[in-house]
Design a protein that fits this description.
This protein is mainly α. It has one domain (20-92). It has 2 helices and 2 strands. The protein has helices spanning 2-12, 29-34, and strands spanning 49-50, 55-56. Bound molecules: zinc ion (2 copies). One zinc ion binds next to helix 2.
């Protein structure tokens, strides 16, 4: 068990992004509303939930279904297609 935990830890703290799950890009709109930046934990959670808000993470825009761009392109914090702000998407997130 200890070895498994160590492996998991290593995955959670990858050097230069190695070992991370990059796709799909996931997002908690409620977190983004509070702090408009990407939280690295979103890419690690296999259950797809935000443990701060007890909400399921979004992997695409709930309004138009477009997948999120890579966070480096989140200049304005909105959907690249329908321009819904990430913060507003929190209303569409389901409770865990
Ligand atoms: Zn959250
Ligand atoms: Zn959209």
């Amino acid at each position: 068990m200890v070895e498994v935990d160590a492996d998991r830890l290593a995955q959670m703290l990858p050097p230069a992004g190695v070992g991370m799950q990059h796709e799909p890009i996931r997002l908690c709109g409620a977190c983004y509303a509070e702090t408009p930046c990407r939280r690295i934990e979103w890419q690690f959670k296999e259950t797809g939930g935000c443990n701060r808000h007890d909400l399921r993470l979004l992997s695409k825009c709930p309004k138009c279904g477009t997948r999120f761009k890579i966070p480096a392109l989140w200049e304005y914090g909105l959907c690249g297609k329908c321009r819904t702000p990430f913060a507003e998407m929190a209303e569409c997130q389901k409770r865990i």
